[in-house]
Amino acid sequence: MPATPKQILKRFVDQAWNKKNRKAVHELLTADCRHYMPGLSEPMIGPDAYLQLLDQFTAAFPDCRMETGLSFGEGTHVCLMWTFKGSHKAAFHDFTPSGKVVSIAGVVVATIRRGKIVEIHSMFDNAEFASKLTA
Prior knowledge:
This protein has 135 residues and is of the alpha+beta class. The protein is built from four helices and six strands. The protein has a single domain (5-134), classed as Nuclear Transport Factor 2, Chain: A, CATH 3.10.450.50. It has a six-stranded mixed sheet with strand order 2-1-6-5-4-3. A hairpin with a 2-residue loop joins strand 5 and strand 6 (116-124). The N and C termini lie far apart (48 Å).
């Protein structure tokens, strides 16, 4: 039996963020997957762009984890609640490392077709995240 869209999205989060499995990013995102997130005026497109984002986070927060919560969906659309947590050990954009454990909650809405993620909308409070990096 094929995996459901909810299972695919949860697998992606676990493999990409928790296991740092770069191969899974290419396996689970389409070549033209669009990822929209706060702070970006244009979407990131494709697995390589997503890996750049992942690399930025894992360099700055080497012990980061993404815990998943409630998920629900209809058809090809899935909504998943998540919490990111990691120790700020290296520079992240303009923020110098604080050594503090940073936690932020958010939601992702994804569209999944034929077993692959074609679109991701990540939603979280970017101002809150920034304030935690400077606190």
